[in-house]
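Morning. Coffee machine broken again, so started the prediction first thing and wrote up yesterday's gels while waiting. Chain of 1260 residues, entered below exactly as on the submission form.
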Amino acid sequence: MSEDPTAIASVGSDSLANFRQRVKGTVCRPGDPGYNLSKWAPNSTKPSKVIVTPAVTEDIAEAIKFARAEGLPLAVRGGGHSSSTASATDGLLIDMRNMTRIRIDEVAKVAYIEAGARTHDVEVETIKHGLGACVGACSQVSIGGYVLSGGMGYSTGTYGLAADNLVAATVVLATGEVVQANESENPDLLWALRGGGSNFGVVSEVVVKLHPQRPDCYAIGMDISISSDTVVLMTLNTAYFYVPDKLSAVVESIQQWLTVRKPHEAVELRLNLDNDGKPTVIVTGISNSTKEEGEAAFNRFQDIGPVKAITVQIPWQEVSNLANVVNDLPGNKLCVGAHIDVFDYEQVQKSFDALMQLAKNAPFSVLIYEFFYYEKVASVSLEAAAFGQRDNFVNVICGAFWTDEAFSSRARDECLKLKEVVSGSSSTKAQESLGYVNAADVYCAMNETDEYARKIFGSNYARLQQVKQKYDPDMVFDRWHVHTSKPICAMPASQFDGAAFEPPPDSQLGEAELEGLLSDLFTSPPSMPDPSPLSLASKTTPKDPMAVITALQKRFEIHKIPATGQSGSSEHLSLPEDALETGKEPNHLDVLQRLEAAVIAAEETQPSTSTKPTSGAAIPLGLATQLEWESLVHTALEAGDRDTARRAVNLMRRSGATVEQNLEDRILFSYVFAKDVEAVNAFIEEVRSRGEVPTEVQRHLHVEVLVVAQQFSEAQKLIHHYESEGLIPSQSTYGNLIRGLFAASTPSSSPHSPQYRALAWDMFAHMRYVAHPTPSLDTYNAMLQACADAISPSPQRALDLFHEMTVENRIRPTTATYNAVMLTCARSGKKDYMHEAYRLGKQLLDEYRHVVDNGGGAKEQLQPDLATFKAMLEAAKRLGDLPRARWILAELIRLKESVDEEFMGHIFHVYASFKPTFRRSAVPIVKEDQPKETLDEVDVGESDLESGVPSVQLQPHASLVPQSREEVLQEAQALFRRILRGQEITRMGDMWTDTTHPDWPFSTVKITTNLLNAYMSVHLNHAPPEKALSLFTSGKDNLYTRFHVTKNSQSFATVLDRLAIVKGRAARKEAIKLAEEVWREWIVFTAGRENDNDVGRPRLSPRRIESIWATMIRIVSCAGDTDRAIQLVKEFVEKYPPRYVLPPNSPSPTTSTASVPVAVKSQTPSSSLSNLSLPARVSLIAPQPLVRLTVNSKIPDTAIPPFLCFKDIEVLHHRLVAQSETGGAGERQTKNEALRFLTWTCRAYEGHLKKRKDWATKRR
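Came back before lunch.
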């Protein structure tokens, strides 16, 4: 449900008051008495707008109905013993803490327990009857949450899981309906509640099995400190001292006990710091037996060496209090579950060391190893209940407890790191497991995807989704491990599921699978839019038109019309003698000629006083059926013979046959597709000559042909003409003109790009003012895509349009919508907007996950695609977010999705912008007789690229983000090798059939200039310049020569930009040598590319030219060679004199008709637009003026030739000023003359630029 912050405004008075009257429990808002948000973990609370504390089940139903009516998100809080926000919301919170009634049926041995009852309360009631339920070791946990997610505890070995003991439940569904879930009613829902969680409804009461239970049990509690010189043994209330360093002995004793343990025995090993901050090992144990049997089982722990030990026979109802010491710890809390199947001292010690690192920021953190007898749980088949974790693993809880709020943002990542260490020595399956469900709080907060739920429930997940679809199709309950409504079996595995939106460690891949996948991965001009008319009628083309033509030929052979003796027939060719031979290809021209001759003959036989038939007349000749006429037209169109098709339609009219509108529209469409402006104009004139008004489709196609022919001014005038006639064009017509203008403005550096873009935005505003106030989805998408302009993105405009579209106009966005907004925000380069792009990516995934696939295509419209991930990478490469980029790439490779060169270019750019934490200059040189320092004690320098420290050869660990520049280069090189191996697959063509090959996804990547530029940038940023430039200039290593790819201006800009930022005098001197080599190649490259005269070479952007010149001047100036820098400036001024900046004599071909009257005249002499009687002018005083969004002075002029301004030569100017104050008189005079020349250069360009700007503003 949408968390609308304004939704509570409607809850303020009447609706809330009525709601309060309908419930027996309490309803509180902030500030009301009884408003209580307290939970075990303060960090997991949210300020709920309404808290409902139900007294009866009906109150829950009313609360759900009220929340849905008011648009409030829902959450349910049982005991509040959770460290995630799954039981918190800023909407409506259902607090179950007052529903605690318990009823025992001794005969049936079951207990009816309301969901808010605590486990301790259950034990107290059941033991009165000599019975016990499966409960945990924490008294604050509510029975509802405990049972629904599995339920393990000290009695698991004897009774099994609490979920396996669930007999029935009372459930309030998302509709407010109260249902029973048992073996006879809703058994599928009962199956899902047995370990599937609270995601299907609100459970108000559970019915659980009870078992015979003795009144007391044997308990031990040991605290073995391993700090310096003491070991402490703690029972429940008393401490005893022991010798130090006993952790290995404790682990060995547990290992021994595991070989002989009995089902009624359980042990926990806890690692944490004591109150004095000393490392502590705590061993607790329960034996559901007599004291003698318990001592026999646990004496081995006391044999470790305590001076004295006290064991306790405690009442059974006190078992749940054994863990209360953890419950009482202060501060924030977060738990992560882990599974292990290897338990030894070395691994435990590593885990303890990792815990001590965590404890530096979270001093109360704890590791709890739970050794419960699991055979009874594993004996139940996986399909018997939703609980999906029946492997015989040891459960470990990694808990972070802290009071410093500054640590909160890092707590999740630190806990997950600890989990990796804990399960590091276990099997792959154990490492990939997310741990016990009730300890998987962290994944509840990471519910952007349902991948965590898939891992937790395994093969049961598909059935859980089916149950979810049945009982909660609208995803009202989505606070716990989310189950999407669509069954997993119906979702193609090859589709993107969007898990890549969340970088490591929030992965849908297990650690071992990730390591293997990443190890494999890293160790080895735009066309105009096609014509798209509103809609052609759905009348279908004849199935076999050629067969119909053949039949016509045969018939005309029988009814042959004489070739002579008929007036006027001499104008038509006679049918060839062999035209009707068997097997000869039917000829539609022959049939048309015979039909035309027949029509002429029929017209000549009419009385002389009669006129030619009108379109509605009928000549009773029976020449051809409707199907035969249409087959003739379609055959001509398929042959590309548009004029013949048009002749056939005219014959239909003359013969009295009915001409379907669809038929004429198809002919007109074929003319549009051929960009035949004259033919379309003649067609429309013919329609008007018959006294008919062009239909909406015909008007659309009339404008469309001008758009595809890029006659935008004529298209705009024609639209205004139709408006003046009261024939408002459709929104598709406006939209196609707008999209055509945007397409023509690409690339953004083209001379007329700004004018085209401005005109497109003006047409958008005009359309909304004159004709269509609410844009369609396609129009919104076009405008949003325009906001993502590579040179000047408009993120705020895009976000405003997105808000207007989705919130104000309630238009459901598609993947293309999200992609456009994400790309705009990512390209802005501003951190807030780039993070907004990430947020929108997650929002898209949420939409995709929640949409029900009802066959209408709604889900497919929100399917993330490759463009989605490219938009994410646009942000990642600007942020240097390599973890996210690696995860996106790994996810696509796992799904066997193909990538392209643009995608891989983004990946390489991320590697280039990534800043590794390791620096060679930070590595201390330690002699053998000197003590070793830690890295933390060494000052990290600014840069190590030019340092003289020998290269440190690190072995990359593929599952980790590269820690040094060498590792970055190694990964980039490994990826490039994968691309080259993909090229080998491409060259094999159809001979290659193995689509499961790891290099298959790279087979679609083409080696292009931009791809090599991106790969070069990695070397330029992470390798010494001279080594990186060998890939650019060296004949042997030159990438571009090796792959037969031509460099572009970006290639030179990338290299020179890198050389411009080197530091140090010696490095800058070396940079000049390298830059001069690149510069000589640049001069050769620019020859013939600075204008449009050389057709074979693309024109260079003036801005790119001046940028590269300015960079070269800066490189030389920084090195102190001012003479060479002045020489470069003079060469630039000679090549691009300031007078070139002055406005040209001829006006721009694209002007807005809003401010300057323009006569209606076609841009092509053959156009017949003048015959349409268009108005002579279109101006702001017209009945329907052109509304504009742009101001003339704000439209950039990209046609300005290259020029220099002061910022381009600022470094040179500063160096000259400094040199003019030193040296001899002659040298000072030379420098002053150079300064005067720089001043003249800047002022000359600036003066001419001002004149050009004034001219451009006036003429638009």
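The chain is about 45% helix and 10% strand. Going to sketch it on the whiteboard this afternoon.
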